[in-house]
Specification:
Elements (H helix, E strand, L loop, with lengths): L1 H16 L12 H9 L18 E7 L1 E6 L2 E6 L2 E4 L19 E8 L5 E8 L8 E6 L1 E6 L2 E6 L2 E4 L19 E8 L5 E8 L9 E4 L2 E5 L2 E6 L2 E4 L5 E3 L11 E8 L5 E9 L1
């Protein structure tokens, strides 16, 4: 009986020294909880703490460099990131064989354990359209009805549409023998679209009389201007350009527009340009 009680006392003393029951569960360390949360959803964690898989989605755009591999499993770099494709990668409206160095693409995929991106989709960016081209010349072979007309300028045939701009003069001003400037652009499908057609007005005719005024008689606006042997008369309907009627004096340089009446040697001035 004394031996039995002694054993019990020894057991109780051992349990007290250990701080409690041997059936309690040790608490989870705060450090291990933080590591698990930081890597949640990004892959499994191996014994040494490295990521062994990844599911983080990402997108990146850039110009391909370092292209290698054979479709569908190719690899290339975008902005120093390694991109990899496989049989499950989609290429949008294009195809894997469109990829090569210098091609601009957009990639969406998942970041892998080694830092590379496994592409879910690779979309090739279309090349920029060529710049507009301007052709000037005289209209010929005009046909059609505005706004859709077809004509030839400088041996090139153009067809306009409802989106073509004709400036202030409108489509009706485009006629055979009219001088025009045509701005067109090649579209993605290879067709040529006319952006604008500008009718170039003919240069104004030169003055009928030019020179230095030798004498002036009368009172503005009805004056008689003599330039050596040539005479012009003005009226209230005459336009004076550059300076006023009162500035038309002996020694002034002028250009005079107008018409001659049948059998007359005196010019009826419609416009006097004073320099």
């Amino acid at each position: 009986m004394k031996r039995y009680l002694g054993s019990v006392l020894v057991a109780v003393a051992f349990a007290a020294a250990c701080g409690g029951s041997d059936h309690s569960t040790p608490p989870t360390s705060p450090a291990s909880q933080t590591t698990t949360a930081a890597n949640a959803g990004t892959g499994a964690i191996s014994g040494d703490g490295t990521t062994t898989g990844a599911t983080a989605a990402t997108t990146i755009t850039g110009t391909i460099s370092g292209f290698g591999g054979t479709c569908p499993a190719v690899s290339f770099k975008l902005e120093a990131k390694v991109i990899k494709t496989d049989a499950s990668t989609s290429f949008g409206d294009g195809k894997c064989s469109d990829l090569k160095d210098g091609v601009k693409v957009g990639v969406s995929g998942t970041v892998q354990a080694d830092g590379s991106i496994l592409a879910k989709q690779v979309k090739v960016a279309p090349p920029p359209p060529p710049p507009p081209v301007t052709v000037e010349g005289t209209v010929s072979a005009l046909s059609g009805t505005c706004p859709k007309i077809t004509f030839t300028v400088a041996s090139k045939t153009f067809t306009t549409d409802s989106l073509t701009r004709f400036g202030d003069v409108g489509c009706a001003a485009v006629k055979n023998d009219a001088k025009v400037a045509v701005v067109s652009q090649v579209q993605a499908n290879g067709t040529v679209r006319v952006l604008t057609v500008k009718v170039i007005p003919p240069p104004p005719p030169p003055p009928v009389i030019t020179g230095t005024v030798t004498s002036v008689t009368g009172t503005c606006p009805a004056i008689t201007i003599t330039l050596e042997a040539k005479v012009a008369v003005t009226s209230s309907s005459t336009v004076f350009d550059g300076k006023a009627c009162g500035d038309v004096k002996a020694g002034a340089k002028v250009g005079i527009y107008g018409t001659y009446a049948t059998g007359s040697t005196t010019l009826t001035a419609t416009k006097v340009v004073i320099r």
